[in-house]
Design goal:
alpha+beta; D-amino Acid Aminotransferase, Chain A, domain 1; 2 domains; 8 helices; binds 4'-deoxy-4'-aminopyridoxal-5'-phosphate
Length: 285
């Protein structure tokens, strides 16, 4: 079955879908994006993703391409047309097409919108989860505005590639003070020996993950102790458990960090419980 993408008002076969070569998303990574989990054909936590998209657009002064309710319709349509039951839907908005010049276009341009969706075999995530993933650390080298979900992801691309080349699944960034910020495409967590779940505050140095936000609410409801504070790779290595979260991974147990075995070296009970419980606290639409 051929895949269908939404590109600036049209649903097209992916093979024919294209954007202008002077699109600022292509030339400057001048755009933002969202990735939503698709589960049983439904979109997970869509309102929160759209709210974050709205914030990212506003921080970059990119116009909203259409009302959020219309974007939601398009995303559902792309999921349906691609018959995705389990997988992800990707939405990208760039500032639009203009003659190449670093400054914003002087005449208003229409933002470009692209939406794609793809199936992911749930067994793949389950497999990774059963084994637990390896994480390496890399020096934080991104700009300070990582709170904006920008398509400018070159440092993240290099960090993920470094992880793959080291036989790991994810790279966690470590800032100049020696604290973990987040993963190249996920938020970082540990569980202390006395059972406290710890993640860095979203005030600085991280993207405020939607999975992170839902999980914090879940922790409260499940009456699991939670601390919002930075932690070091050394603390993670000595922790009872570690895990990493993203819409595309949900809760993914981490079993080694830079080769140091965490806890038992197997996915921990807290991470597994949170993964199992997560969707009770998520919204579906
Ligand atoms: N941090 C970064 C850098 C990411 O790319 C992602 C995934 N988009 C996350 C955190 C997790 O965010 P979310 O839970 O919204 O997928």
């Amino acid at each position: 079955m051929s895949r269908i993408a939404y590109v600036n008002g049209r649903y097209q076969d992916m093979r024919d879908a294209s954007v202008n070569i002077e699109d600022r998303g292509y030339q400057f990574a001048d755009g933002v994006y969202e990735v939503c989990e698709v589960r049983s054909g439904q979109l997970v936590d869509m309102p929160r993703h759209l709210k974050r998209l709205q914030r990212s657009l506003s921080e970059l002064r990119i116009a909203e391409p259409m009302p959020l309710s219309a974007l939601s319709v398009v995303m559902h349509e792309v999921v349906q047309r691609n018959r995705v039951r389990f997988g992800i839907v990707y939405l990208q908005v760039s500032r639009g097409v203009a003659r190449r010049d670093h400054g914003f276009p002087t005449k208003p341009v229409r933002p470009s919108v692209v939406v794609t969706a793809r199936s992911i075999d749930p067994a793949k995530g389950a497999d990774n989860c059963a084994r637990g993933i390896k994480v390496i650390t890399v020096p934080e080298n991104r700009w300070p505005r990582v709170d904006i979900k920008s398509t400018a992801l070159l440092p993240n691309v290099l960090a993920k590639q470094a992880a793959r080349e080291a036989g790991a699944y994810e790279a966690w960034y470590v800032d100049g003070d020696g604290f973990v910020t987040e993963g190249s495409s996920s938020n970082a967590w540990i569980v202390t020996q006395d059972g406290r779940v710890v993640t860095r505050p979203d005030k600085s140095g991280i993207l405020s993950g939607i999975t992170r936000g839902v999980l914090i609410e879940a922790l409260e409801a499940l009456q699991i102790h939670f601390e919002e504070r930075p932690f070091t790779p050394q603390e993670a290595a000595g922790a009872a458990e570690a895990f990493t979260t993203a819409a595309s991974m949900i809760v993914m147990p981490v079993v080694t960090i830079d080769g140091h075995v965490i806890g038992s070296g197997k996915p921990g009970p807290v991470a597994l419980r949170l993964r199992e419980q997560f969707h009770r606290f998520a919204s579906f639409s």
